[in-house]
Write a structure and sequence with these properties.
heterodimer; A: globular; B: 101 residues; 3 helices; 0% strand
């Protein structure tokens, strides 16, 4: 049963990832991304990371992909891109070389990592402690990782302010006209 | 028969390389962002696997932080993208080289 779930989820993940990379329409790429994210959430559930699976669906599939689709629709850039032409000579070949190299490296790493000696003392808290997954996660998050958690809130505030500043446009004028109005002579350019 | 840990690691490696390949060949900045999300998810999967392998909740906490940073990154990145594409619709990342002085 476990193997079956893993096989289906892995197939969904890999097909979705291929779809993101090779689909010509950005909207299709975003929908394929949702598919991949759901597959990852299934694997999180299979590994007893229930809270992260829920967050994965809510934050990634629910918020980030919707943000992507919103930007695609807002800008009207959902035109198909011709993925067969190669404007930079050798870009695709270089990409293949780099990809092959990283496949080799990561596979070697995964083989090595699977032989890591298990049963070492836990760095923070063990997974099989008291309480469910959520209780354990919250305990560690609000004790050992409290400073990182607070820093994250600062990061989110910075992101919100940055998004507002970047997307802001003074009403009734394009950015170019606005610059001209504020230039001292008015006809300097 | 249960699933061995290494299978998850191989799947994460495959997903990461697919994302990296997409990042290298695509020129639409939105799709490049999605490929970055693929790579982040591959790393998340690896973290959760190691968390279970080593019986340590720390890996899952790191995944939590990766999710938050990914959200912040997407918000700021798409903000920059909106302000670029508003002036030059259908801009690809090759065109953004016009920003150099």
């Amino acid at each position: 049963m476990d193997v079956f779930v893993f096989a289906v989820a892995a197939a969904v993940i890999l097909i979705g990832a291929m779809g993101v990379v090779f689909s010509r329409n950005p909207v299709h790429a975003a929908l394929m991304l949702v598919m991949t994210l759901f597959g990852i959430a299934v694997l999180f559930v299979q590994q007893q990371a229930h809270f992260l699976a829920a967050v994965q669906v809510v934050v990634y599939a629910g918020a980030i992909v919707v943000l992507f689709l919103f930007v695609i629709m807002l800008l009207g850039v959902d035109v198909a891109e011709n993925v067969t032409v190669e404007p930079l000579v050798g870009q695709r070949t270089a990409a293949w070389v780099i990809t092959a190299g990283s496949v080799g490296l990561l596979t070697a790493l995964a083989i090595r990592a699977a032989q890591v000696s298990l049963g070492m003392p836990s760095g923070t808290r063990p997974l099989d402690g008291e309480g469910g997954n959520l209780v354990q996660l919250a305990r560690v998050l609000f004790s050992d990782y409290l400073f990182a958690f607070e820093a994250t809130s600062v990061l989110l505030v910075i992101a919100v302010v940055g998004a507002v500043v970047l997307a802001n446009r003074s009403p009734g004028s394009t950015a170019d006209a606005g610059e001209q109005e504020h230039s001292p002579t008015g006809a300097g350019r | 028969m249960s699933v061995d840990y290494s299978w998850y690691l191989f799947l994460g490696a495959a997903l990461f390389t697919i994302g990296a390949y997409g990042l290298l060949i695509r020129r639409n900045p939105l799709v490049m962002f999605m490929c970055i999300e693929l790579m982040l998810n591959a790393v998340n999967l690896t973290f959760v696997t190691f968390s279970r392998m080593l019986n340590d909740i720390g890996g899952q906490v790191v995944v939590f932080f990766v999710l938050v940073v990914a959200a912040a990154e997407v918000v700021v990145g798409l903000g920059i993208l909106v302000s670029i594409l508003r002036r030059r619709p259908s801009a690809t990342v090759d065109d953004i080289s016009a920003l150099k002085g």
